[in-house]
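example protein:
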Amino acid sequence: MKLPGHDAIARQADEHLVTHRVRLPRKVVERPIRQVVKRLLMAFAVLVVTALVVYADRAGYNDNSDSSVDFLDAFYYATVTLSTTGYGDITPVSDSARLTNIFVITPLRVLFLIILVGTTLEVLTERTREEWRLNRWRSTLRDHTVVIGFGTKGRSAIQTVCTTGLKKEQVVVVDPSNKVIDAATSEGFAGVIGDATRSEVLKRAEVHRARQIIIAPQRDDTAVLVTLTARQLNRGAKIVAAVREEENAPLLKQSGADAVITSSGAAGRLLGLSVLSPAAGMVMEDLIQQGSGLDIVERPVVRAEVGRSPRETDDLVVSVVRGHRVLGYDDSSIGSLQLTDRLITIVRVTPGARVAPHTRPLPED
């Protein structure tokens, strides 16, 4: 067993005490600083236009200090006018200057204020809108999929599940890294920033309402703690976990995982198979890549197949799920297919086609 002590795990959890936040995917991603800079440039452009208008009609203005208006005075007048300060030391005296103030300077002043005040209003509106979206998301999220860890394993797992028709709105990613969550939300998934070994983080991901949980962190000890916490919060969800070392797989089973995938062992077996038979290795790689070529799917037995043997079905049957047992296609105890059976078959799927996922988890042996 290669798990560190509980004290080390506790210290690691304390080091990851971060604010647990939920991030929903955004259609338009633009940094706030870019928005502010854009607004400031627009406001400065309005200021420059106003100053040029005043300077072009400088003969119609009077400066109390020297009775003349130069370029600096024009900018000064534009600044105090657009900001509604209005000291009154420079005033329009001619009819043309006053008409210009009425029909040009005043609309520019209103535009200037809209640009500056609109930035603040937009920030407040965005916060309100985001809070509303978050509350609505929480109230409607049911039977979703939670992915713990959005690295190579987690990303590949959720991409495989999505090929069966799962909507991205039904996926929540949990990861302690801001960059990882940003990547997840940019792909259309909701994200929760935080340490998944803590129950409050999983609660923000609505784990207690989830149908299935994929646990794919970087460390095996993290996978154990997350599995224990997730199973405590949700007794009925299907939990699939990944570990690096095979010796840690039984511990994941004891912690509540329905299925445990050993990443290093699976990769090693595929390498060995490819050495013995490259063609067989290619077929196995095709089978584990959902959405094109050959796929392994689980489906219920249809009425037309009841009473037949697995070999008499139109699909290539690999196993039959009956009750709490998974039987091979050549198992003599199968006899004829029953309506309550489920078949694990190999089918050919063309790119773009979707195969509906099974509606219940595989029973344990």
Remarks:
- The longest helix spans residues 95-140.
- The CA atoms of residues 227 and 282 lie 33 Å apart.
- DSSP finds eleven helices and 13 strands in the chain.
- The longest strand covers residues 293-300.
